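Good morning,

Attaching, inline, the backbone tokens for the sequence recovery test we're adding to the shared suite. The designed sequence is right after.
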């Protein structure tokens, strides 16, 4: 099968995790291909395809072929989302969506998704997992990074040390997580401020008592973190770049298409390490 064909899974369960977070659980025969190629990275992501209403598409979606045979306005729109968990035994793939009313494309879809609905996507790709040889893990992010942060916490080995700073609206948006690691989670509440408009994460990281030893770092979320947290970690703290996974998942006020264009320009100027794109609920 061509690598441009999209994987097809069906919605088997829907769970409301918090006022602004909904889990879509997917399953089906084609999950076997995901399981076979799974690397165990905790920031694994897929690109979900959304189709133009009223347009007839083939049962099997080959994105390259569609772009040759259909006008651009009918091409699938892709949105990038983190895999919260792959449960091979249960035959389930979990994807958590930030939902906020009618804003964007993927969020509204997730809010109304029904069991049995077919979802098409490419991937997964990935770039990070906690290194058991590091002395400490520092995990920093907002709602968009929450699935990857919680997956990373769950993946820690017994006694492995980690500290997480997570920005959400309020207490109702906090999520429980089980881990064998030695973890401190700091939930930062931004309400009534909106996502991407506060300095909560930057302030928290700068105030954190820096531990001894090698610190591996995962900082993902709104693009402003690249201008604040990353310089502090790399320039002021001197963390080696091999131990820093820092990237924007989204940019305030931008669709994913606009975000990708911005990110490409940042990379061209040497400002943005290429980890992966993504935007919550756009």
């Amino acid at each position: 099968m061509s690598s441009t064909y999209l994987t097809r899974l069906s919605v088997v369960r829907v769970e409301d995790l918090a006022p602004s977070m909904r889990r879509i659980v997917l399953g089906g025969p084609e999950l076997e291909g995901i399981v076979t190629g799974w690397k165990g990275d905790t920031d694994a992501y897929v690109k979900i395809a959304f189709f133009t209403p009223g347009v007839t598409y083939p049962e099997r979606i080959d994105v390259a072929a569609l772009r040759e045979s259909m006008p651009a306005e009918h091409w699938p729109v892709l949105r990038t989302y983190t895999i919260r968990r792959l449960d091979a035994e249960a035959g389930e793939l979990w994807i958590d969506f930030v939902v906020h009313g009618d804003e964007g494309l993927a969020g509204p879809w997730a809010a109304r998704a029904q069991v049995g609905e077919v979802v098409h996507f490419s991937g997964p790709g990935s770039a990070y997992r906690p290194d058991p040889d590091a002395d400490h893990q520092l995990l920093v992010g907002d709602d968009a990074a929450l699935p990857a942060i919680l997956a990373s916490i769950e993946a820690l080995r017994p006694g492995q040390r980690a500290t997480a700073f997570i920005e959400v609206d309020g207490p109702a948006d906090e999520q429980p997580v089980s881990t064998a690691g030695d973890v401190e989670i700091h939930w930062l509440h931004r309400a009534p401020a909106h996502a991407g408009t506060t300095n909560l994460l930057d302030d928290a990281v700068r105030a954190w008592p820096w531990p001894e030893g090698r610190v591996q770092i995962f900082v993902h979320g709104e693009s402003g973190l690249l201008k604040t947290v990353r310089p502090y970690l790399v320039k002021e703290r001197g963390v080696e770049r091999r131990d820093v996974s820092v990237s924007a998942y989204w940019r305030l006020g931008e669709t994913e298409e606009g975000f990708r264009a911005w990110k490409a320009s940042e990379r061209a100027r040497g400002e943005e390490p290429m980890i992966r794109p993504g935007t919550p609920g756009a």
